[in-house]
Amino acid sequence: MRSDRRDIRRDRAEPTFETPSREGDFAARDGDRFTPPRSLPNSRGSRSARPERVEPRFDDDRYDEETEMAERQPRRRRKSSKRSAKRARRSSMGLVGRLVYWSIVLCIWGLIGVAGIIGYTVATMPQIDDWKVPARPPNVEIVDASGTIIANRGDTGGEEVTLSDMSRFLPEAVVAIEDRRFYHHFGVDPIGLSRAMVTNLAAGSVVQGGSTLTQQLAKNLFLQPDRTLERKLQEAVLALWLEWRFSKDELLEMYLNRVYLGAGAYGVDAAARRYFGKSARDVNLAEAATIAGLLKAPSRYAPTNSPKLAAERAKVVLAAMVDQGYVSRDEAARATAVGAPPLPTKSGSAANYVADWVMDLLPGYVARYRTDLVVTTTIDARLQVAAENAIRATLDKEGVKYKVSQGALVAVDNDGAVKALVGGKDYAASQFDRAIEARRQPGSAFKPFVYLAAIEHGFSPDSIVVDEPISINGWAPKNYENEYLGPVTLTTALARSLNTVAARLTATLGPDTVVQTARRVGIVSQLHDNPSIALGTGEVTPLEITAAYVPFANGGWGIIPYLVEDIRTKDGKVLFHRQGDGPGRVISEVAVGTMNRMLSTVVTDGTGQKALLSDRPVAGKTGTSQDFRDAWFIGYTNGLTAGVWLGNDDNTPTKKATGGALTALLWNRFMTEAARDMPARPLPGVELVPPPTNVGVSFGETDGLPMQGPQLPGNMPAPPLNVPVTEASPAERGLLQRLFGN
């Protein structure tokens, strides 16, 4: 139709004005002016903007033109919409493509970056051939003479237990609450990490960790607890290496034996012993859940610190075990009902003083040890408890009255074995061991060595010495309350603890003689050879002076006090066993018998009456230092010697706490229990010596202070006699010196 319209338009006759002309539609005469239409554009305009020529139309043209325009418009719109849709499709596909493209690019570069960081991390770490799992720090198990555990010491606090030996609930509880995919990942768990990230984002805080047990083990074995990206990368690399190097069970066993579980316990065995008093082999389900719950926050969830929080955390662990199929709901419910009550805390137990001393001595016996050890001590558990109770009861009842805050007690048998040792009232409050470390003035408790020297140089228990004021090179000792009895026997002077008599004897014998006598029986602390040594002005430790009394109790044989009987590895290999008999005889039998006669009078008729036992003979000596700063009683039966000290750490005076008033009472409390299963025997050597003729002194029964008694006529002391004794060799003295120090 369009071509037809073109033909019609071509054949159309144009109207003419005047005469038709072949040259065009219009003809102009000469002289006519042509005026262009007003609507024609400027001839200089762009060609594309020039409108089509407007021609006159006939009526039949109007329909054709409008029809053509009407038909042309939809075609244009259809073409335009197709082009727009095509462009939209191309634009949409281009956006997705670009997103995919750049995502791939970013992933590639991210992987390259991570690989570079990991490569750098590995490059800065030691060569893989040099990587070694450090040995587990050895544990030292300290037991008493019967094999009962006193304490676990070392860096772990428990022994290493194999996975097959420990209670099955322990590994199950730990895996359930800490790393449920432990047996399915390769050391680093992307699934667990993603789950932790989602959980933490949802909670708005860190409520779940993403580290696997292997990563935690790597951190514990090799790394410092720094929170840095480098440390986390090293942890991941080491975790991969551990997974390559060890089996899953080996990794779990290492983890359970090394992880920190609070209260100084490293490993599940240490935790089981610390909180429940049993081995990791014997814990039940509730106890295992409690131990596993400690991993989140050992101090917060420790059953000894907060039983309620510990129980709530154990419920969470039990629920995780049920969820993982390790236990049934009924088993978990029963465990929750039973609970896991912890042992009463023993942080204040005096047995810790024993354990500390063992650890101090250990390097001298075993220079290096890389395996768990068992150290057998000489401690008697029953006597140890009796000593602790006696110290605590005395200080609780009498401490405020006498203004005494601290005490120490040590008991030694005739062989030198330390059977009980208490270094203070409360170990948790003070770990200073006053029994072996505190050097205090013994006061009159030193006087037996003065009288022993006198007996060995010719004096007898009935020798008379005048008790009166004396001045020795400007030094003027005084008696208690300035009482003087005049002429008295040595037995009376010792029983009454007369200072002037002890000073006079020392001046007569020579201070160096007294010092040598004291050293021979076991005193190794520094002593000044001047007359004041008679009154115990030199400083000694409770263990030292107690050991020096033992020759009186055992018949005159010198001893070296000892605590460690033997040391073995966990598999029974003997590393040390005590041998040797000590220095030998240091006091003659007659001198021993004489001293025992005199020292028993101190208890029966003198200042130490509160130490008297009803069923056996007792001997000993009280002691009080200047201004009542120290109160002592050192006494013995035939078989056990015990020394007691009371005072204040800051050396402030007590409120007239004397050896006879307080320490003798404490000694009696201890020895009454300690001697309960010991046969009663006479003191050694007393059968060789006649009893003293007359002590001549009586004492009050309430406070142990002396009252005036009859005086005996005086005479001059007999000349000194040489008493043969076997002195300790230089080597033996050196051992004593190393034991006690200077």
TrEMBL record:
Residues 74-88 have a biased composition (Basic residues). InterPro entries: Beta-lactam/transpept-like (IPR012338), Glyco_trans_51 (IPR001264), Glycosyltr_51/Transpeptidase (IPR050396), Lysozyme-like_dom_sf (IPR023346), PBP_transglycosylase (IPR036950), PCN-bd_Tpept (IPR001460). Keywords: Carboxypeptidase, Cell shape, Cell wall biogenesis/degradation, Glycosyltransferase, Hydrolase, Membrane, Multifunctional enzyme, Peptidoglycan synthesis, Protease, Transferase, Transmembrane, Transmembrane helix. Residues 155-321 form the Glycosyl transferase family domain. Pathway: Cell wall biogenesis; peptidoglycan biosynthesis. One of its GO terms (cellular component) is outer membrane-bounded periplasmic space. Residues 1-88 are annotated as: Disordered. One of its GO terms (biological process) is cell wall organization. One of its GO terms (molecular function) is peptidoglycan glycosyltransferase activity. The keyword Transferase applies. The chain crosses the membrane at residues 99-123. Residues 407-639 form the Penicillin-binding protein transpeptidase domain. Pfam families: Transgly (PF00912), Transpeptidase (PF00905). In the N-terminal section; belongs to the glycosyltransferase 51 family. In the C-terminal section; belongs to the transpeptidase family. This is Penicillin-binding protein. It comes from Pleomorphomonas diazotrophica.
